[in-house]
Structure formats: C-alpha cells, structure tokens
Amino acid sequence: QVQLVQSGTEVKKPGASVRVSCKASGYSFTSYIIHWVRQAPGQRLEWMGWINAGNGNTKYSQKFQGRVTITSDTSASTVYMELTSLRSEDTAVYYCARVGGITVPGLDQWGQGTLVTVSS
Amino acid sequence: EIVLTQSPGILSLSPGERATLSCRASQSVSGSCLVWYQQKPGQAPRLLIYSASSRATGIPDRFSGSGSGTDFTLTISRLEPEDFAVYYCQQCGSSPLTFGGGTKVEIK
Fold first, then answer.
1. Cβ separation of B50 and A106 shorter than 8 Å?
2. What is the pLDDT of residues A55-81, one digit of tens each?
3. What does the DSSP assignment read for A32-52?
4. Does A111 contact chain B (CB < 8 Å)?
5. Residue, of A105 and A26, whose pLDDT is higher
6. Quick one: closest CA in B to A63, which residue?
7. Each residue of B33-49: pLDDT tens digit?
8. Distance (Å, rounded) from C-alpha B26 to C-alpha B40?
C-alpha cells in the first residue's frame, strides 16, 4: 500500500536548522509531486512548498523563501525538507503529502507528521 | 493569496444529524480546485473531497461537497460517531495553496 514515512521528533535551538525526511513506498515515486505542510499548535495548516519527485522542480511559499529547501533522492524514494534559521514560531508538526495526480488535485496520502520543537 | 474562511468554528450536533460546513474564499477559486480534509486528534489530515464535489477513494457517500466561485459547502448527511473531527478546506487553484481555519464538529 502507499505509505509516506517521516523521520522522528526533533528538538532544536533557535538559529539552528532541521532536516525532515519522507520515505515513499507502494507507488511510482517519480510520478508524483510531494508537498510539505506544517501545523503549529492550535493553528491552521500552512503550505510550505512542493517538489516534483520526477524532475526535481520546486516551488516554495514566499513566506519561507530563502529558509526552506526541498530535495528528493530518487534512489532512496525519499524527499527531504530543510528549514534554516529556526525560531520559536517554527515549532510545529511538519507533514509531507502526495498530490493524487492531475485528476485528483488534493493531498491524498500523508506522512504521519514530524514534531519539530524550537526552544532554547 | 486567497484567504479561506470557514464557518461555523464549532458545530455541536448529535449522531444521525446533518452537518453543513461552509468555506468562503476571498476571491474566486480557479477551476473549482477546492478540497476538503478531515483531521482527528494526533492524526494527519485525510482527503475527503476534491474538485469541490468529487469524493476521494473510500469516502462514504454520506459526505458530499458542492459550490463554485467563492462559496463552498461540505455536507455530512447523517453523522456517524467516527465523523466527529475537525474539517479543513483548501484551495489548489492558485499559489500559494491556502487552508481554512477549520470547523470542529463535536458531539452535542
């Protein structure tokens, strides 16, 4: 079955960077786009960016431009999201999610989420 | 960016009742690219409806979506115990993707 499995909980100090991984299985990795979405405590879901796992093209939210980098490793069927210059407001659960495709333009498969806590 | 406003914030209903959730966009959503998700505590969101009115695979037919332009609705015809959760709308018609603030459907 289709699965996205994310790396574990991270605790970081302000100013540090974090890299979260998202390993895909059960489908053709290079045929889909993967998005990253975060959810701060009590807040709405917030889109960060996406990557076309097939050709590596990316698009980022202007809010995170310059601080976020999304990459993919096709040999490992894994997508990575790196966020730099962390601040307390970046404390959130970070999700990777797959777009269902041209005919299903929603996020149809989600990772389990990775809690990133930023605290001094 | 398109701002999505969901109402009501909290909906208190009993099992078997009908739930009507609203999602209003600050500008027209291109291609009716409007999606609904269900999220339960400690879980990732689950895709319910895409393209405003198409049910995702495996979603029961008590869930239905409608609307176009700036006004969209998610209806749950008869609430089952497992339907009590938070529901989010999301637009995918223009960048950046944006989400609504959510409607919590709670047991009355």
1. yes
2. 999 999 999 989 999 999 999 999 999
3. SEEEEEEE-TT--EEEEEEEE
4. yes
5. A26
6. B96
7. 999 999 999 999 999 99
8. 27
